[in-house]
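MOLECULE: protein
FOLLOWS: sequence and fold
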Amino acid sequence: MDISDILDQFDSSNVDHLIPYDENLFNQVGNAGPNGEEDLRALTRAWVNERATTQLLEWPQDGLITRCRTRVKNQIDLVERLTGNMDPKKNFSLIIIQTDVERWKFMIRSYLRARLAKIQKFTLHYLSSPELQAHLSDDESAYAIKYQQTLHQHFLNSFLGKFPINLRNLNDTAGGITMIEAPDEEASIFARGLGSRDGGDIVHVTGRGRNEEGEIGIARGEVVVAKWSDVREYVKKGEMELV
């Protein structure tokens, strides 16, 4: 494989392998749950999106992570049942199952660690309002509160305790300057078009330049460099994904 082969993978004309916009992939409806392949695609997309931006994305509300953990547990149980079987054919199947389990486990762990790193870096920011705290799962919210309490107590014992009482807060906004560190929403990211919600192949994105706003059409499969704040809503709707 040479550089031309790599570039061909990002050629906007080579889009047959891309997964088009599918609302059921993000908002599962009806009684029938998604199958393993749909969950794997959704997990992969959530994992890549989470790692590609500095802002903490919303926790999947459709039970995706719970289902993925259940699938991993079921596969591990299957491996344990087949471990004692010495049939070479079944042992080969066992290797395939174990490899698949490790793939799922890697993505789940990497996804959770990426979120945990953002929570630890911007704890006060995500605890500063109910709207931001809604991005966290229940476990993440409990962890963030405990982490901030422990960190603040450590600072008090180390040096803040020697400061005047009015200077001990870590979320001070005196003078119109906030001490709360927030992720950079203007950071540049790479994003790929997936098609619009109405079934079209073009996503119309409004971007802010230095002097004025402008609108561009991003075709399905086209990769662009943009500000995160300009494409955030399109990623949330599933019309674009980060790469």
